[in-house]
Design a protein that fits this description.
single chain, about 55% helix, Transposase
């Protein structure tokens, strides 16, 4: 699937980020850590650690379920009383 097809079919813009040739070693690309952190949160759910699902719709539902569990736990956390 080329870039023009992605743009017309999914209304997405594909941006390919390449390293420059003068860089050496491991360099974290901008905003990549946000994606890595999200994947780490999702992998805490046991069912998402492996690809058990046969259909993409059920895999997508499991991602929604995992994020729902994460957010409800955060909302239910006790907070200190404000004066």
């Amino acid at each position: 699937m080329n870039c023009s097809c992605v743009l017309t079919f999914l209304a997405l813009v594909l941006a390919i980020v390449k390293r420059s040739d003068d860089m050496r070693g491991f360099v974290v690309l901008p905003k990549r850590w946000i994606v890595e952190r999200l994947f780490a949160w999702l992998m805490r759910t046991r069912r998402l650690a492996r690809d058990y699902e046969r259909r993409t719709t059920s895999a997508e539902a499991m991602v929604y379920w995992s994020m729902t569990l994460l957010m409800t736990r955060r909302l239910a956390r006790s907070r200190p009383q404000q004066a």
